[in-house]
Amino acid sequence: MPNKQHHTQLIKTEAKRLGFLSCGISKAEFLETEAPRLENWLNANMNGEMRYMENHFDKRLDPTKLVEGSKSVVSLLLNYFPSETQNSESYKLSKYAYGTDYHFVIKDKLKSLLQFIQHEIGEVEGRAFVDSAPVLDKAWAAKSGLGWIGKHSNLLTQQVGSFYFIAELIIDLELDYDTPTTDHCGTCTACIDACPTQAIVEPYVVDGSKCISYLTIELKDNIPLEFKNKMDDWMFGCDVCQDVCPWNRFSKPHNQPLFNPHPDLLKMSKKDWEEITEDTFRKVFKKSAVKRTKFTGLTRNIDFLKD
């Protein structure tokens, strides 16, 4: 069907024009290999207090239950690797949270892509997802040939590493489907060896309840004392497993102005963070993902990190 091929090419070309790193497409169907993996992970309570991970089990694994009549999952990657990072004498913030909250940036791009599809191809129904719904982003991206899931459970790509966001359009249009790529982690255990809290309990399995990202963002209670002096100065999120990954030597800075940090952010020292006021918090993180943890959450994290 030449039409299918033409439509696929149209979508991939437009995705590139919109600034996405890459675009892969897979058939919307039940994720057979992910089902037992997700079930075992949940049964082992590795989701900690992220109880929402237990909801919509079927929808997580089957996009046709999420978007009626869906035929294709269009997976997209958007680079967020910064050109400069924080002052080395600072409490640390995950690089993805430097600039404007990615949900807003990507949602707008996805809406534009869906409108383009409807305008160019005709009546196509679908929904856009940016990690805010029960969609297994990494599994779909891997199935679409955009990379493989590494031992740290993040998606990895030989050409660009792993510092990118993953998003999807699930649509009721049949397209040409990509095939998964192969795993290139080999015998490397850099991420497992470097994890400050030993959250990567075995290759490809992360105990979410031990992950610094979980402890500093998702966990609403006090951080358990067992993690005292093990947090490696991370006050929001953590990039250790990505920073040590050999594939990330190929990361190139993004060209999305909205992901650039507030100028004050990169200069702040530990003392500045310890003395941060709610006004400064609001100014520096005006449209940032850091607002998720709120001022009280960030100061709780900083207090926990202090000697």
Automatic annotation (TrEMBL):
Localization of this protein: Cytoplasm
Pfam families reported in the protein's UniProt record: Fer4_16, QueG_DUF1730
Cofactor(s) the protein requires to work: [4Fe-4S] cluster; cob(II)alamin
Record: residues binding cob(II)alamin: 60, 131, 155, 166, 213, 238-239
Cofactor note: Binds 2 [4Fe-4S] clusters per monomer.
Family, per entry: Belongs to the QueG family.
Protein name: Epoxyqueuosine reductase
Species of origin: Mangrovimonas cancribranchiae
